[in-house]
Amino acid sequence: MGEIHTDTDRKTQLKSFDESKSGVKGLVDSGATKIPPIFLYNQIKIQENSANHQLTIPTVDLKGLEKDEAIRREIIQKVKEASESWGFFQIVNHGIPQCVMDGVIDGVRKFHEQDVEVKKEFYTRDFTKTFVYNSNFDLYSAPAANWRDTIFSIMAPQPPDPEVMPAVCRDILIDYSNHVKKLGLNLFELLSEALGLESNRLTEMACAEGLFVIGHYYPACPEPELTLGTSNHTDSGFLTILIQDQMGGLQVLHDNQWVDVPPLPGALVVNIADLLQLITNDKFKSVNHRVLARNIGPRISIASFFRTHFREGIASRVYGPIKELTTEENPPLYRETTIKEYITHYYSKGLDGTSALSRFKIA
């Protein structure tokens, strides 16, 4: 493919890529040695060495959380500091067995490495479906496509009907999600207490009610300096729990510098998402992050978003800054919104490097 000369050419190429239903992996399997123009970013080169290698995101050890009050207070303080200054932290001794973590990475890999004709049955852009496979949820709105394919599954508030999920990863996705739901409840308690609120406050606000799990597959890229695995963005929900394999590539923006989040064996990455920043009135930060493309792969990651999706009734619940966190000196920074309104805006905008929160700021 040569350069895209007109908007019409770009639309034609996006449509052709989408209608192939074979994703980025299909390009790699066809022997592509150059990336198609729809994946090219405006920057001439995306510098991997632009990261600040002196900085590392905080790690919080959850060992002893339930057994020792002094340890619990120490953990809450670490979670508070990480949520305020980084918006990201890794957790260890979180209670999810290593075999389940390995299993879900393997399950996502197996789905993406199936015969393309089997995968095509699940390919759709209807995000109200329980299980979706596609490449780039924002394919037609983002400035450039990302070098990855993805599966999406709604796991809560209504557990999925196993029959609509692919057999190759059904059981492990359900098992892993059940573990993540329990872990999420613990984390929301810690976050509530870190805000100086009752431990059940965020769960009473239904922050842990919805769970939306996505499994990314990043094939090796022939020209990784010209595109990204996932472009610069923030997450749309309340909280994200991420498991990544040992490939690396995740970076967080901290003090205007990119910082690598190297894989830590047995660890999970936790990050504050937009709706939690909104309800905490900017006390906790939803921070920009991205994934570099690599010439090796595939890289596998599974992100679990705590939020409801488009179709659930709870998506119409109204959220605004928590009253106890606002004062005359610290007034509400955001107008109230619903999850449905928020993610509709987020999806239509796409991953363009700007925060979807700006639309909801009070001028």
Task: Characterise this structure.
- The protein is of the alpha+beta class and 363 residues long.
- The protein has a single domain, classed as Jelly Rolls, CATH 2.60.120.
- 29% of the residues lie in helices and 19% in strands.
- The protein has nine helices and 14 strands.
- The chain has helices spanning 7-20, 23-29, 69-85, 98-112, 116-120, 170-194, 201-204, 274-279, 339-349; strands at 59-61, 88-92, 131-134, 149-156, 211-218, 228-233, 239-244, 250-254, 257-260, 268-272, 289-292, 299-306, 318-319, 337-338.
- The strands form three sheets. The chain has an eight-stranded mixed sheet with strand order 1-2-10-7-12-5-4-3.
- The longest helix is centred in the middle third of the chain and has 25 residues, at 170-194.
- It is globular, with a radius of gyration of 20 Å.
- The relative contact order is 0.16.
- The mean pLDDT is 92.
- This is 1-aminocyclopropane-1-carboxylate oxidase.
Strand content: 15-25%
Taking strands numbered 1, 2, ... along the chain, how are they ordered across the largest sheet? 1-2-10-7-12-5-4-3
Q: What is the mean pLDDT?
A: 92
As residue ranges, the low-confidence spans are none
**Between the first and last Cα atoms, what is the distance in angstroms?**
45 Å
Mind telling me the C-alpha Rg? 20 Å
Number of helices: 9
User: Structural class of the secondary structure composition?
Assistant: alpha+beta
- N-to-C order of helices and strands: HHEHEHHEEHHEEEEEEHEEEEH
Keywords: Iron, Metal-binding, Oxidoreductase, Vitamin C
Protein name: 1-aminocyclopropane-1-carboxylate oxidase
Domain Fe2OG dioxygenase: 207-310
GO molecular function, one term: L-ascorbic acid binding
